[in-house]
Amino acid sequence: MDKTFLVTSSQRVCAICGDRSSGFHYGVQSCEGCKSFFKRTVQKQLQYACVESKSCQIDKNNRIRCQYCRFQKCLALGMLKEAVREDRAPGGRPRIKSLIGLKENAETFVSSELIIQLIQARPDAIPKRRPDYLELGLNDMCPLNPVEAIMELTLQEVEHVINWAKRVPGFCDVDKEDQISLLSEGLLEVLILRICQRSTPHQGAVMVAKDTLLSPDNVFNIVLEQWAGQLSCFAYKLQSLQLDMAEFACVNAIMLFEQETSGGLRNRDLVDFVLNRTLDALRDYIKSSYPEKPSRFAHILLKLPTLRDMATRMAEECLFAQSLLHLAIPQLTSRMIELNHGRP
User: Fold this and answer.
1) Where's the Nuclear receptor domain (predicted)?
2) pLDDT tens across 6-48, in order?
3) Where are the domains of the chain?
4) Pairing with 309, which of 8, 127, 188, 195 sits 20 to 30 Å away (CA)?
């Protein structure tokens, strides 16, 4: 078994919030707090709502802030509702029954741990406008140059993407030059995926920052109108897949590793190995979580080229995307070199 993709015994933390794990509960390594939360939610059939964008960060410090996202993360990581109902036999005595799911064999265990690590690597931070923008709408920002304002916010995403990639299982094992090549080639795709995923609750609009929605209807600038229109189209296509948190984490990693770099890679075999492990993890997760949808894995993979083609067209046709890449690639390359040489 490849230990690169496993959490060691000294790293046994709750997959949901990162607190100290007390063991496997309902099929997932979790703490007493998340175990009790999941059990209470299922037994009482509680319904929650998210007041943000259904992508709240769930960790030890803020796990109680959004119960909706906390429960969705429990489900995405493989917690089984059926296990709650079967938790105890009549009279309160524990029922000895092995849980089937992501842990039923060694290969699936590796996939399960990889899924957990991918979700934990998810970049949760959302760009924030500078204080001098906070009281201004998009139209009011025109004197401050709206294109530059949105560009500044989007460039903040580059640092988040770099930090995310460094936490993706297997990425740091790849040759350092290949890391830069993969991120440079896949940057626009990952940025678009990230922006559009958090924008899905806002139909026809794109969340470029925590307090800023951008849509073709609320901007009067041809460059931003084109950018917003193409992002909205991409978000609509992405929404049709109805990806859960685990699937989205896998798709992000797949898009990162499945790049045809212009200059080639120093170690294509290693990149393909990491890519295939991610594909296997996604397949195993879908098989376990969506047994009633046997074609879901193939359906998602068939949609990825369409999403990639849309990103390519944006790079070719959208002036904002072209300017973004012109500014972002040197920033990314410089930052990766710093990180690879141990500078924070």
Assistant:
1) 11-86
2) 333 334 778 888 888 887 777 777 888 998 999 999 988 889 9
3) 9-79, 118-338
4) 127
Q: How many CB atoms lie within 10 A of CB 152?
A: 16
Round to whole Å and give the CA distance between 283 and 296: 9
Task: Residue 319: name the closest of 206, 166, 158, 150 by CA.
Answer: 150
Question: What pLDDT, in 10s, does the model give residues 177-188?
Answer: 899 889 888 888
Query: Distance between CA atoms of 14 and 116, rounded to whole angstroms?
Result: 10
Residues 6+ apart with CB under 8 A from 334: none
Does the pTM exceed 0.70? no
Token pair belonging to 19: 């607190």
| Per-residue tokens: 5 | 């993709």
| CA distance between the termini of the chain | 33
CATH 3.30.50.10 assigned to domain 9-79? The reply is yes
C-alpha–C-alpha distance, residues 120 and 115, integer Å: 9
Task: Give the distance from CA 289 to its chain's centroid.
Answer: 18
Q: How far apart are CA 48 and CA 70, in angstroms?
A: 10
- CATH fold, domain 118-338, is Retinoid X Receptor (1.10.565)
- Residue 98 has what DSSP assignment? P
Q: What does the alpha-carbon distance between residue 105 and residue 218 come to, in Å, rounded to a whole number?
A: 52
What percent of the chain has a predicted confidence (pLDDT) above 70?
Answer: 76
Q: What is the DSSP letter of 24?
A: E
Mean pLDDT of 277-296: 88
